[in-house]
Amino acid sequence: MMKLSLGPILWFWSKQTVFDFYGKAAEWPVDTFYLGEAVCSRRRELKPDDWFGLARDLKACGKEVVLSTQTLIESEADLRRLRRICDQNEFMVEANDQSAMQVAIRNGIPFVTGPSMNIYNVATLKVLAKQGLKGWNLPVELGRETLDELIKGLQEEGLDLPAEVFAWGFLPLAWSSRCFTARHYNLPKDNCEFRCLEHPDGMELRSRESQELFRLNGISTLSGSRYDLMRELPDMERMGVSTVRLSPEHLGMEGVVQRFDLVRRGQVPEQDPLTLVEAPPCNGYWYGRPGMELVLR
Which pLDDT score is estimated for 104? Predict the structure, then answer.
């Protein structure tokens, strides 16, 4: 049976909100937790020791824990935090950029790659497997056909590298050295007043026709539609996908997890409405279409 994972929290939440979230999530049917700040270095509600403490608590609950690294490294301070994560040997590391991967390889610790890493072929995976790669995430812009080719290619090479797919949530699309949330409030990035705390699921960015195009989340831009591959889980299982990733939101996550758990067990979830941030669904990338499209089967 495929595993369920909770990706790192991409939004800026208060320390207590994060603790409360994981306190509840520890009881959900989630197999793997990704912990850590993956977006902005200014988000320091939780210190490294706080993340390590959460990781140990979840591990004690029987969960697999992976420490996520920042996606955009911009300063020596960012590198120090990265080294702190990669200097331990308790937990596997999720490398979200080349710097993290290089430090993990140098330190000889096992790592997986996150969905922001540009991995498009078996040759790349083969090279990384020799350097400590233990699993990989399909880049969010790739779809079913590419994934099937990669999994089959790995099998032909005799490589056991579990594949993980981002299957639910707002798709992280791009990162910038400029903070869009601070810009919205006419504030400099280095004195942003932590306005992201006011937007626990990002800021909507709509077109002139009121179509929700993106969600702004500090230096990160995400899809305006919510990616939902719940109905594609049986297809993933036939292909040999190891894990499906759900991206945390501050409302309704338990219901999302329960539904995905039922589907992976071959059951049909009830159609009761979920309490979620309002957003249209999409699955276009999976079918090789524009990402914001919804393909009905």
Answer: 94
CATH of the domain at 106: 3.20.20.80
Domain span at 147: 3-171+224-287
Any domain includes 212: no
Q: State the pLDDT confidence band at 273, using cuts at 50, 70 and 90.
A: low
**Is 189 part of any domain?**
no
Please give the DSSP secondary-structure letter assigned to residue 19.
H
pTM of the model: 0.95
DSSP 245-272: EE---SSSHHHHHHHHHHHHTT-----P
Q: Structurally, how many domains does the chain consist of?
A: 1
DSSP per-residue letters across 173-195: EEE-SS-HHHHHTT--GGG-TTG
Strand-pairing partners, residue 227, are 169, 282
> How far apart (Å, rounded) are the C-alpha atoms in residues 113 and 249?
22
Whether residue 83 lies inside any domain: the answer is yes
pLDDT tens by residue, 67-80? 999 999 988 989 99
DSSP category for residue 84: H
Say if residues 32 and 6 touch (Cβ distance below 8 Å): yes
CB–CB of 19/46 below 8 Å?
no
* Residue 125 forms part of a structural domain: yes
